[in-house]
Design a protein that fits this description.
This protein is an alpha/beta fold. 38% of the residues lie in helices and 31% in strands. It is built from five helices and six strands; from the N terminus they run E-H-E-E-H-E-H-E-H-E-H. The chain has helices at residues 5-12, 58-73, 94-107, 121-131, 144-152; strands at residues 2-4, 34-41, 47-56, 80-93, 111-117, 137-141. Helix 2 (58-73) packs parallel to helix 3. The longest helix is centred in the middle third of the chain and has 16 residues, at 58-73.
Length: 153
Protein backbone atom coordinates (compact mmCIF):
# COMPACT_ATOMS: atom_id res chain seq x y z
CA UNK A 1 0.00 0.00 0.00
CA UNK A 2 1.28 3.45 -0.88
CA UNK A 3 0.31 6.59 1.00
CA UNK A 4 0.03 9.53 -1.37
CA UNK A 5 -1.85 12.76 -0.94
CA UNK A 6 -5.07 11.10 -2.08
CA UNK A 7 -4.55 8.00 0.07
CA UNK A 8 -3.58 10.14 3.05
CA UNK A 9 -6.78 12.15 2.89
CA UNK A 10 -8.77 8.97 2.49
CA UNK A 11 -7.03 7.49 5.52
CA UNK A 12 -7.24 10.53 7.81
CA UNK A 13 -10.51 11.95 6.51
CA UNK A 14 -11.43 15.31 5.02
CA UNK A 15 -11.93 17.09 8.36
CA UNK A 16 -8.39 16.77 9.67
CA UNK A 17 -7.62 20.09 10.22
CA UNK A 18 25.69 26.04 4.80
CA UNK A 19 28.42 26.56 7.15
CA UNK A 20 28.29 22.81 6.81
CA UNK A 21 30.35 20.08 8.32
CA UNK A 22 29.51 17.16 6.07
CA UNK A 23 28.91 16.79 2.37
CA UNK A 24 25.64 15.62 0.90
CA UNK A 25 25.12 11.90 0.65
CA UNK A 26 23.45 10.16 -2.26
CA UNK A 27 19.77 9.23 -2.22
CA UNK A 28 19.42 6.04 -0.31
CA UNK A 29 17.62 3.94 -2.90
CA UNK A 30 17.36 5.53 -6.33
CA UNK A 31 17.17 8.86 -8.05
CA UNK A 32 13.38 8.58 -8.27
CA UNK A 33 12.78 8.16 -4.53
CA UNK A 34 14.65 8.21 -1.26
CA UNK A 35 15.94 10.25 1.64
CA UNK A 36 19.13 12.27 1.70
CA UNK A 37 21.06 14.15 4.36
CA UNK A 38 22.07 17.27 2.50
CA UNK A 39 24.29 18.71 5.20
CA UNK A 40 25.06 18.78 8.88
CA UNK A 41 26.06 22.09 10.40
CA UNK A 42 27.50 21.85 13.89
CA UNK A 43 28.08 25.52 14.72
CA UNK A 44 26.82 27.95 15.74
CA UNK A 45 23.59 25.94 15.92
CA UNK A 46 23.43 22.22 15.05
CA UNK A 47 21.22 21.85 11.94
CA UNK A 48 20.53 18.67 9.98
CA UNK A 49 19.11 19.22 6.49
CA UNK A 50 17.18 16.33 4.96
CA UNK A 51 15.37 16.06 1.64
CA UNK A 52 12.88 13.45 0.47
CA UNK A 53 11.84 12.52 -3.06
CA UNK A 54 9.16 10.34 -4.61
CA UNK A 55 7.25 7.63 -2.77
CA UNK A 56 9.34 6.43 0.16
CA UNK A 57 9.82 2.74 0.89
CA UNK A 58 10.88 0.73 3.92
CA UNK A 59 14.22 0.12 2.16
CA UNK A 60 14.73 3.89 1.95
CA UNK A 61 14.40 4.14 5.73
CA UNK A 62 16.57 1.06 6.34
CA UNK A 63 19.40 2.68 4.37
CA UNK A 64 18.79 6.19 5.75
CA UNK A 65 18.48 5.53 9.48
CA UNK A 66 22.19 4.86 10.18
CA UNK A 67 23.01 8.19 8.48
CA UNK A 68 20.39 10.05 10.51
CA UNK A 69 21.39 8.34 13.76
CA UNK A 70 25.01 9.36 13.12
CA UNK A 71 23.96 12.96 12.40
CA UNK A 72 22.09 13.11 15.70
CA UNK A 73 25.06 11.53 17.51
CA UNK A 74 27.37 14.25 16.13
CA UNK A 75 25.35 17.08 17.62
CA UNK A 76 27.23 19.42 19.93
CA UNK A 77 24.38 20.09 22.35
CA UNK A 78 21.49 18.14 23.74
CA UNK A 79 19.17 19.34 20.97
CA UNK A 80 19.42 20.19 17.31
CA UNK A 81 17.39 21.72 14.52
CA UNK A 82 16.03 19.90 11.50
CA UNK A 83 15.15 21.24 8.06
CA UNK A 84 13.06 18.73 6.10
CA UNK A 85 12.61 19.58 2.42
CA UNK A 86 9.56 17.62 1.26
CA UNK A 87 8.79 19.54 -1.92
CA UNK A 88 9.47 16.42 -4.04
CA UNK A 89 7.88 13.96 -1.62
CA UNK A 90 4.86 12.17 -3.09
CA UNK A 91 4.05 9.85 -0.18
CA UNK A 92 5.00 6.65 1.61
CA UNK A 93 4.40 2.99 1.31
CA UNK A 94 2.52 1.85 4.43
CA UNK A 95 5.56 0.27 6.09
CA UNK A 96 7.62 3.38 5.32
CA UNK A 97 4.96 5.56 6.97
CA UNK A 98 5.39 3.46 10.10
CA UNK A 99 9.16 3.89 9.78
CA UNK A 100 8.65 7.65 9.62
CA UNK A 101 6.59 7.56 12.82
CA UNK A 102 9.38 5.56 14.45
CA UNK A 103 11.91 8.26 13.46
CA UNK A 104 9.79 10.93 15.13
CA UNK A 105 9.34 8.82 18.25
CA UNK A 106 13.08 8.05 18.41
CA UNK A 107 14.47 11.52 17.73
CA UNK A 108 11.54 13.90 18.27
CA UNK A 109 12.58 14.91 21.78
CA UNK A 110 16.00 15.97 20.49
CA UNK A 111 14.56 18.46 17.98
CA UNK A 112 14.54 22.07 19.14
CA UNK A 113 13.14 23.42 15.86
CA UNK A 114 11.89 21.77 12.69
CA UNK A 115 11.27 23.56 9.41
CA UNK A 116 9.14 21.64 6.92
CA UNK A 117 9.44 22.90 3.35
CA UNK A 118 6.48 21.81 1.25
CA UNK A 119 3.87 23.11 -1.14
CA UNK A 120 1.53 20.21 -0.38
CA UNK A 121 -1.35 21.02 1.94
CA UNK A 122 -1.77 17.32 2.81
CA UNK A 123 1.82 17.24 4.08
CA UNK A 124 1.22 20.26 6.30
CA UNK A 125 -1.90 18.65 7.74
CA UNK A 126 -0.21 15.31 8.31
CA UNK A 127 2.80 16.95 9.95
CA UNK A 128 0.53 18.50 12.57
CA UNK A 129 0.20 15.00 14.02
CA UNK A 130 3.98 14.69 14.17
CA UNK A 131 4.18 18.03 15.98
CA UNK A 132 2.69 16.35 19.02
CA UNK A 133 5.78 14.15 19.31
CA UNK A 134 8.35 16.94 18.93
CA UNK A 135 9.84 18.63 21.97
CA UNK A 136 10.41 21.83 20.03
CA UNK A 137 8.69 24.11 17.59
CA UNK A 138 7.71 23.20 14.03
CA UNK A 139 6.86 25.59 11.22
CA UNK A 140 5.81 25.08 7.61
CA UNK A 141 7.41 26.97 4.74
CA UNK A 142 6.82 27.16 1.01
CA UNK A 143 10.16 28.88 0.43
CA UNK A 144 13.46 27.12 1.23
CA UNK A 145 15.33 30.37 1.90
CA UNK A 146 12.76 31.45 4.51
CA UNK A 147 13.03 28.03 6.16
CA UNK A 148 16.85 28.32 6.23
CA UNK A 149 16.66 31.78 7.81
CA UNK A 150 14.28 30.61 10.54
CA UNK A 151 16.05 27.31 11.31
CA UNK A 152 19.45 29.02 11.54
CA UNK A 153 18.24 32.05 13.53
Amino acid sequence: MTLTSEATFAAIGPNVANAGATAATAMTTSTSHGLQIESLTLAPVPVVRVSARGILTHDDYTAFMPQLDAAFAEQTGDRLRLLFDARELQGWELRAALDDLKVVMTHGRQVERMALVTDARWMELLSNIGKLLLAGEMRHFHNRDEAEAWISG
